[in-house]
Amino acid sequence: MTLLLIVAAMLLSLYAQWKVSSNYRRYSEVPASSGFTGAAIAQRILDLNGIHDVTVHASPGHLVDHYDPSNRRLVLSEENYYGQSVAALGIAAHECGHAIQHAVAYAPLQWRMAAVGITTMAGNIIPVLAIGGMFLAPKVVLPFLAAAFGIVMLFQLVTLPVEFDATARAKKILASTGAVASGQEFNAMSKVLDAAALTYVAAFLSALASFLHYVLPLIMGGRSDEE
Ligand SMILES: [Zn+2]
Question: What value does the mean pLDDT take over residues 57-75?
Fold first, then answer.
């Protein structure tokens, strides 16, 4: 049953990734009539929000865009930094959404930042535990595996409001600044950001399925012991 859920989450994840790359490929060819580049709109959004301690950088690589809160760096892929497409503006504005969340101390972003260390540890320990499980009794390894997957699942859960909020902010700002024209341009930009949001939903569902896969035997095993 849980294995079925894991497979379903994997399929959704593959679908979401395909949707991101096909929408991005399509709408990075659609120029925004405003003429802004990703870098220019990012700088403008930061200025409009009174954020002066975040720097905007171009990075080689495909879709490597992110906001780095510890160094207050907004990193855009070269094609989005220099690009004038609706996809480039959407992604640049989305990353600005994270910078704004950081500036206004948006709670889910702070929880997510606080959880990065322990989640990285949990992610590193999972393969070790899985290999250990081949030599040790499942009873010994299972609680630790369940706990590690639980941490990853909670991290993916907190990521959801962070990502949805950044996208909501991006859409609002792009509409209000006129950087992306309403109608066709706005809809195309939305498709790129909504597909990206779906990848985070898939990542959460896949973490939830793995967590359930390891925690349910514990709960059921515990029950049969009591009986
Ligand atoms: Zn994001």
Answer: 96
